[in-house]
TrEMBL record:
Stretches assigned to the Enoyl reductase (ER) domain: 15-331
Protein name, as recorded: Chaperonin 10-like protein
Pfam families: ADH_N, ADH_zinc_N
MF terms in GO: nucleotide binding; oxidoreductase activity, acting on NAD(P)H
PANTHER family the record matches: HYPOTHETICAL OXIDOREDUCTASE (EUROFUNG), ZINC-TYPE ALCOHOL DEHYDROGENASE-LIKE PROTEIN C2E1P3.01
Annotated family: Belongs to the zinc-containing alcohol dehydrogenase family.
Domain of life: Eukaryota
Keywords: NADP, Nucleotide-binding, Oxidoreductase
Length: 338
């Protein structure tokens, strides 16, 4: 008999989440079923719920990640067995099937986009880390050409907005490769960002920020982890007179005014491993880099575990979008809540 599954369903665009039963889906070729023990609320998922950020069929189960215990493996799966502790990125928004939605007890995912969780790592930390970490590493390594950790490449990186999850991971990754890292943050975060590996940190609100950053350039790699127009426009000035390329977590907007010799690189960085053309990167990510990062090679983003399970996901989404918590919010789908 299949186990009883429950999920937080969204029934219509921008609708409230409702806790109902959901089908238990047996794994197909190359798939696994995960007993989901931790859900991290990402801004991306919260935007899909509240603002129709992505078109999905309704009713639907949102969420593109799961951390828990392998419950069942499908045909041809060799890297995992029942009982393994894993974290996985699911193709929820690519394939638009609810069985992959992370906001449920039993989640179907792919072997190829799953990593083992080290024994020393909690489900909560495992769930909270990959989305922002993948965004940073994909932008720097895959899109800007930065090397892998330990390559000791000479280079200089500029990370704008280094105190947030993505920015903090970007600083750590660049430092692990061997780059000198210059960063921007609010003054109260200077010590924190330096602790992640930055050699110099400037106040992003400083009236002379452009001239100060230019004085330490040129830069081999530049990323804005805030993605706002102010950072993009400032970086465009920093890149003068020769111009150049930088990565941003947001696409260009009407407020972004770049010089003609400056290119902004934007992609759905967190979805990198769902794209077949990135197969080599995906294998490295789930088999080597992510397990090591979870095992202590990366300082994880601070998290806050919320009570209430599936019943409180919507409240957590609201808090994420409204900026009520500086920490990564995590819930246990199995926890009984009101």
């Amino acid at each position: 008999m299949s186990p009883l599954n429950e999920a937080a369903w969204i029934l219509k665009p921008k609708g409230d989440l409702k806790r109902f039963t959901a089908a238990y889906n047996a794994p197909l070729e190359g798939e696994i079923v995960i007993e989901n023990r931790a859900v991290a609320i990402q801004p991306f998922d919260a935007n899909v719920r509240a603002r129709e950020y992505v078109d999905v069929p309704y009713p639907f189960i949102l969420g593109n990640g799961a951390a828990g215990i392998v419950h069942e493996v499908g045909p041809s799966v060799t890297r995992f067995k029942k009982g393994d502790r894993v974290v996985s990125d699911t193709p929820t928004y690519q394939l638009k099937e609810s069985k992959y939605g992370g906001w449920q007890k039993y989640v179907v995912s792919r072997e190829a986009t799953t990593a083992k969780i080290p024994a020393s790592t909690t489900f909560e930390d495992a769930a909270a880390t990959p989305f922002a970490l993948l965004t940073a590493v994909s932008a720097l390594h895959l899109h800007l050409g930065m090397g892998k950790p330990g390559t000791n490449r000479n280079g200089k990186a500029l990370i704008w907005g280094a105190s947030g999850s993505v920015g903090g991971y970007a600083v750590q990754y660049a430092a692990s490769v061997g780059c000198e890292v210059v960063a921007t943050a609010s003054p109260r975060k200077f010590e924190f960002v330096c602790g992640l590996g930055a050699s110099t940190v400037f106040d992003y609100k400083d009236d002379e920020i452009v001239s100060k950053l230019k004085s330490l350039g040129p830069y081999d790699y530049i990323m804005t982890a805030s993605g706002d127009a102010t950072s993009a426009n400032a970086i465009s000035e920093v890149l003068q007179p020769d111009g150049g390329t930088f990565a941003s977590v947001r696409p260009p907007s009407d407020e972004v005014k770049l010089a003609k010799n400056v290119q902004l690189v934007y992609d759905s960085f967190s979805m990198t491993t769902q794209k077949p053309e990135n197969g080599n990167f995906t294998r490295w990510w789930y088999r080597d880099y992510l397990p090591g990062a979870l095992g202590g090679n990366v300082n994880p983003t601070p998290l806050e575990k919320r009570a209430g399970g599936l019943n409180r996901i919507q409240d957590a989404c609201t808090d994420v979008l409204e900026g009520h918590s500086p920490k990564q919010l995590v819930l246990d789908p199995w926890e009984v809540g009101t």
